[in-house]
Design goal:
The protein has 313 residues and is an alpha/beta fold. 41% of the residues lie in helices and 19% in strands. The longest helix is centred in the last third of the chain and has 24 residues.
């Protein structure tokens, strides 16, 4: 059986972190080590004594400058396991989560699988407006039918976006970073981006895992389950969300999908559809948050056409 390292970046969410670590202690196959990377002011280490008594190596790393990407890279350098798990600090694992993930690697005798991700079992239900938006998203190639896939437009179908989650082990183009795992060996040639994606704190996991998928297989397994007890702490404001999503989409497309006039047309077609999609949300639910998100989207599009966005690629 592989030895596993679990890396948990955290920032001032002690209760959420406590629940996450507790669920690791209750695993049928316990991790070899847990690495807490703290960007905040953690006053006590949750279940440190209990982990050590269970034979789990417990490592605490303090950082002064916040940043998820840098936290993950720091955790990788400190880890010693064969399989490296990344968890958000606000997830709670089912008791056999690590066992189910490690089983996928054990079955891969040829070592072709580079990463495996689990399934969040409590996604937010799709509201009526989201279902209406989904029709627009499909028409404009903003989203597709299979979660975890990148479209020709450069946009992608996110997990939880379709209302029809993946029901069996499936090869995908990207994984959600906070519920992912990877073979240690791939970090000899791959690292999380510390440029654009680190600066704007968006899409780091999608960019990294898509890059990995071009060399290794990525597998999503619904057998490995967890809950995402999403915390509102440290979430960007709505204007920033809209702007950053547009800029991320542009940078991702430019780096990985740009291959001619048709490809560019598909991207701008999808981008116009996304603006329409956010406008629909505002029309059906007019409030400050939906307006700020729409303004952020339009601001991001303006940066693309003015050439400002090219400076961050």
């Amino acid at each position: 059986m592989f030895k596993s390292s679990v890396i948990i970046p955290t920032y001032n969410r002690p209760e959420e972190l406590k629940n996450c670590v507790k669920s690791l202690l209750e695993q049928t196959v316990k991790p070899y080590e847990i690495i807490i990377v703290d960007d905040g002011n953690l006053k006590e280490l949750p279940f440190e004594k209990e982990c050590k008594e269970a034979g789990i190596r417990y490592l605490y790393l303090k950082k002064d400058t916040p940043g998820l990407t840098a936290s993950r890279n720091l955790g990788i350098k400190a880890s010693t396991g064969d399989i490296i798990f990344f968890l958000d600090d606000d997830v709670v694992l089912y008791s056999d989560y690590t066992e189910k993930i490690l089983a996928v690697y054990e079955e891969d005798a040829g070592g072709k699988i580079g990463g495996v991700g689990g399934a969040i079992t409590n996604p937010k239900p799709l509201k009526l407006i989201q279902r209406l938006r989904r029709i627009v998203n499909i028409i404009f190639l903003i989203s597709g039918f299979q979660e975890g896939k990148v479209l020709a437009s450069g946009f992608s179908t996110n997990y939880g976006a379709t209302g029809s989650p993946i029901r069996k082990k499936t090869e995908v183009d990207f994984l959600s970073g906070g519920v992912s795992s990877f073979r240690r060996g791939l970090f000899d040639s791959f690292a999380f981006d510390t440029g654009f994606f680190h600066k704007y704190r968006i899409g780091e996991d999608k960019e990294f895992t898509y890059r990995v998928s071009r060399k290794y297989k990525l597998i999503y397994t619904p057998d490995a389950k967890l809950l995402h007890m999403e915390s509102p702490a440290m979430r960007p404001d709505d204007f920033a969300k809209g702007r950053m999503f547009v800029l991320f989409s542009y940078v991702f497309f430019t780096r990985y999908k740009k291959s001619g006039i048709l490809s560019r047309l598909l991207f701008y077609y999808a981008l116009s559809g996304y603006a329409l999609s956010r406008a629909i949300v505002f029309v059906f639910s007019p409030n400050r948050r939906t307006l700020e998100r729409l303004i952020g989207v339009l601001h991001g599009i303006k940066e693309i056409f003015s050439g400002e966005a090219a400076l961050v690629v």
